Amino acid sequence: SRLEDSVKKTVADNPVVVYSKTWCSYSSEVKSLFNRLGVQPLVIELDELGAQGPQIQKVLERITGQHTVPNVFIGGKHIGGCTDTVKLYHKGELQSLLSEATNK
Amino acid sequence: SRLEDSVKKTVADNPVVVYSKTWCSYSSEVKSLFNRLGVQPLVIELDELGAQGPQIQKVLERITGQHTVPNVFIGGKHIGGCTDTVKLYHKGELQSLLSEATNK
Ligand SMILES: N[C@@H](CCC(=O)N[C@@H](CS)C(=O)NCC(=O)O)C(=O)O
Ligand SMILES: N[C@@H](CCC(=O)N[C@@H](CS)C(=O)NCC(=O)O)C(=O)O
Ligand code: FES
User: Fold this and answer.
1) Which residues form a coiled coil (chains A, B) (predicted)?
2) Which residues in chain B come in under a pLDDT of 50?
């Protein structure tokens, strides 16, 4: 579908993408983690897109199997949610994924 | 107002009360913390109460100054949100508040 193509293009064209909701503390946590690491992700606030928000959330579920927010992509690769991202950070792997994605 | 009286009665009559939303991970965290501590809070899922949910959330803001979920009460006393509750747990104070409230 056109929406699915647009989501795929978004995550392919932007090194770090976070699908988020403005009121959600897990989404805030992941956005502020990236900021602390000096990274400015492309943030898409699904609750600010009217009817398209839930549609994008459905597309993301089709593409990634994940229906929740936050939904994080680095270098076009699906990373997961808040817990997954924080786990990678504690393992030291997040930082290398980020430098790979932001340096090409 | 009648709704405000009903909220005040709920937190007075129940040792542990959590105003929550079913989809919210911060709400889930605080509910599961209480479960791990062997406590069964009275949980009120604001997203399952139709139009009354936002009304109760407004009443809680009037009573506690807090407009977010989760909103936690122990022994009729306003504790705060997820972060506040977890902080008290790490300080060892949560457990004493809980035993006081559940033992009278
Ligand atoms: N373990 C996941 C939890 C994700 C989750 O449950 N997200 C909630 C919000 S905190 C959600 O998307 N709920 C359904 C919704 O908002 O549509 C993570 O760390 O990201
Ligand atoms: N630091 C607070 C954060 C509370 C918060 O921002 N809650 C969000 C959901 S995670 C909220 O209530 N947003 C507005 C809403 O859902 O009505 C806590 O630990 O509880
Ligand atoms: S909505 Fe509360 S943590 Fe996401």
Assistant:
1) none
2) none
- φ, ψ at B20 (rounded to 5°): -140, 170
What is chain A's pLDDT, residue by residue, as a tens digit (104 residues)?
999 999 999 999 999 999 999 999 999 999 999 999 999 999 999 999 999 999 999 999 999 999 999 999 999 999 999 999 999 999 999 999 999 998 85
Question: Could you tell me if A19 and A70 are in contact, meaning their C-beta atoms sit under 8 angstroms apart?
Answer: yes
Q: Which atom of ligand 3 lies nearest, measured to the CA of A69?
A: 4
Question: Ligand 2, atom 1: nearest CA belongs to which residue?
Answer: B83
B25 vs A contacts (CB less than 8 Å): 24-26, 82
Question: Cβ of B30 under 8 Å from any chain A Cβ?
Answer: no
Put simply, whether A82 touches B (Cβ < 8 Å) is: yes
Rg of chain B's alpha carbons, rounded to an integer? 13
CA dihedral for B1, B2, B7, B8, sign (positive or negative): positive
